[in-house]
Every structure is written in structure tokens, then in C-alpha cells.
Specification:
This protein has 211 residues and is an alpha/beta fold. It is 35% helix and 27% strand. It contains seven helices and nine strands, in the order E-E-E-H-E-E-H-E-H-H-H-E-H-E-H-E. The protein has helices at 43-50, 73-82, 99-109, 114-127, 143-155, 173-185, 199-202, and strands at 3-14, 17-28, 32-36, 58-63, 66-67, 84-88, 161-165, 191-195, 207-210. A five-stranded parallel sheet has the order 6-7-8-3-9, sandwiched between helices. Helix 3 packs across helix 4, helix 3 packs parallel to helix 5 and helix 5 (143-155) runs parallel beside helix 6 (173-185).
């Protein structure tokens, strides 16, 4: 498998605490990686470094052999629109929009037509057993349904890399495993990097990196 992300000799300090001292990591296409460790160990920080969301570190991180720091803001923005997906512990959604509108939004940002975006969003919602909620407002969804909606939204662009920061942290065990089962089923061709403190959730990944 070809390498997609390379972190080399990373040093990072957060709140006066040294998190990484010369960390190097190679990530290949199709990898499923769990970043584990107790709270404050740097899981989220490393996720942000690997995804180009922060430049607050020393060292080099490349995506497809291009240093994030050498990319123009427009290039980074395009990456996030077309190639990199993100899921967070706290479900973020557009409260005044329906489930369908939330899931289709990334495609609308890509200037897809309303018809095409909605058609693809319906397909995603079917995969995550949410098609019957397509025209409902987001605020009536349960916690598990909202997280599955956010997963459908992240996956609709068919990202090359999906970054997930404690994606099941606010779910009960049943919903957590349902989300992870559906996540891994739809990411066969996607590189998956998850930050989690839950050892059960980390078992869905091939590689475990404890911080």
C-alpha cells in the first residue's frame, strides 16, 4: 500500500506540557489506526497535526508527499472539501436544516446540483438506516442518530482519509458499536484514523498507537 501521510520528527508542546518528542509515523492507504491513551496524552492534538488542522508543532507532516505548511490556504480548503473527512465527539450540525440538507451540504459546497446532492445523500442515509428521517429537523434525533448523520455527512465526499475524534464518546455501548460497525463497513477504501480512550472501540482498527 502506498503512503498517504508521513509525520517526521514531530515535537509539540500544549499548555506547557511536552506531548511529542521526535515522533515519526507513516500512514498508508487503507490503514485503520486507533490513537489511544488517557485524557491529556495528546490524541486529539496528534489527530489535528496529521490532518493539517494545526501548525503548532515542530517537524514535518506531508499529505501525498506535500508538506501541509507549503500548501496555500485555498489548497488546504480544497483538501477538506474533497479528500479529508472529519467526525468529532460532539455532533455538529446545522440546526435550522433537515437531516437530508445537513448530509448533502458538503456536496453543495462542491457546487453539485441540488438533485445530485440529494440523491447521493439519500443513498448515504439508507446505508446508515436514517432515510426515514431525511426530512426531519436534526434536533429531534437521538444522540446515536445524530452521530450517524454526521458520519453519513463525512462519508458523502468519499474521503481518502477520515479523521474521527472520540466519535462514540457521548454514546451508550449499543449505539457506539452500531456507529463503529457502520463506520468500518463504509471505509474499506478509506484510511481511517480514530482517537479514542475506549479499548473496545479501538478493536475495530488494525493498528493501535498508545500515547
Amino acid at each position: 500500500m502506498s503512503k498517504i501521510i508521513q509525520a517526521s520528527d514531530i515535537f509539540c508542546t500544549f499548555n506547557k506540557q511536552q506531548l511529542f518528542k521526535g515522533l515519526s509515523l507513516s500512514i498508508h492507504r487503507g490503514d485503520r489506526i486507533a490513537l489511544t491513551g488517557k485524557s491529556g496524552s495528546g490524541k486529539s492534538t496528534l489527530l489535528h497535526i496529521l490532518s493539517g488542522l494545526t501548525a503548532n508543532y515542530q517537524g514535518t507532516v506531508t499529505y501525498k508527499n506535500i508538506d501541509y505548511r507549503q500548501m496555500e490556504p485555498a489548497r488546504l480548503s480544497k483538501l477538506r472539501q474533497h479528500e479529508l473527512g472529519f467526525i468529532y465527539q460532539q455532533s455538529y450540525w446545522l440546526g435550522d436544516y433537515t437531516v437530508l440538507e445537513n448530509v448533502s451540504m458538503p456536496l453543495r459546497i462542491q457546487n453539485k446540483s441540488t438533485h445530485e446532492a440529494n440523491q447521493m445523500a439519500h443513498q448515504q442515509l439508507c446505508h446508515f438506516n436514517l432515510n426515514h428521517k431525511a426530512h426531519e429537523p436534526c434536533h429531534i434525533l437521538s444522540g446515536g442518530e445524530r452521530q450517524r448523520m454526521c458520519l453519513a455527512r463525512a462519508m458523502i465526499i468519499r474521503p481518502e482519509v477520515l479523521f474521527a475524534d472520540e466519535p462514540t464518546g457521548q454514546l451508550d455501548a449499543e449505539n457506539a458499536h452500531l456507529v463503529m460497525k457502520q463506520l468500518t463497513e463504509c471505509t474499506d477504501d478509506t484510511t481511517l484514523i480514530i482517537a479514542t480512550h475506549d479499548k473496545d472501540i479501538s478493536q475495530y482498527c488494525y493498528t493501535h498507537i498508545e500515547l
